[in-house]
Amino acid sequence: MPSSSEYSGHRDALAEARSVVGEAFDPAILEPAPPAVITGPFFADDPVAPVRRPDTRLVGPGPIGDLSWDDWLVEHPDTAGWVAERWLGGNRRLPDVPQSLPGTRTALHRLAAYVIAPARYAVNGKFGLRWTLGGFGTPFFTGDRQIRVVGDMLIDQRAGDCRAHRLSSLRAAADFLETAIDPSTAAEDDSPPLGDVEEPLGVDPTGSRFLGDWFGMAVAALEGLRADPRSVDPSRPQLWPGHLDPAIEEGDDDHRASHGASPGDDAVSEPYLYTSFWWPDRVDLDRSDRRWNAGPFTGAILPLSAFPAQVDPVAVALDFYRSNRDAAAGRL
To answer: Once rounded to an integer, what is the mean pLDDT over residues 208-227?
Structure first.
């Protein structure tokens, strides 16, 4: 498994991908990349919609592009490790869930909601986060700055400069980022309490890297759902700091739902996929259908322990989201 240091230096994910595919292709990826977008409404790039150069072919994840990364691998098998590590295609597998996940998840949830997301919000009024290689972080914002977590390291990348800080406390993280601890801007009802900002966070690198893989898997599936022509008005995938899960919104006024991937919470202790309908009184669900098994909300969940063995987890997640979407609309 890669160490934190392998992802802790200065990174440009799109430039890395371009160096892999060469001049005849343009790549679509799943991570944010510079330059920063400083105009609304998103103030963030869309990695699956890069600017294409003339006379090139687009290589993209799943159905996005002229050829998929799986197609690319047929002719370039030597890049299989690079492609799979970035959840673009190939032989993708989730690692075993480490025992440290619950404590690490809570610690990073606090860090995301009360320190990292507010640092972005203070600059452009946006607090959404993204999956990044080995963890999670912000899109690039003013000054080509990105804040991200890799293992137990907090990275602050600004244009040509990149600094790293081993996570200790919320206070130390905020001081390192030169930002304030904000207990309200990005928090949600299910966010953990702010707690003692001086206490050790206790982030385990293995638990943190598992979260990075879980988020990468989820974003790959959500981009597949977003690109599906049967999806109605899908939003961009975003990692919500208050919930610490990547999700999109999709559906018409009667069937609007959030599709996402929780790393676990008070209601369901293990990582799980979910579909949650916004207006339960508007969607006519067949209550005899055992798929609608989400107790805390109207919708469906699929815990990680129920994933089929030896099956690409991105395919499992995408099938889960699509089938819930279609079942709710009476298309199954």
So the answer is: 98
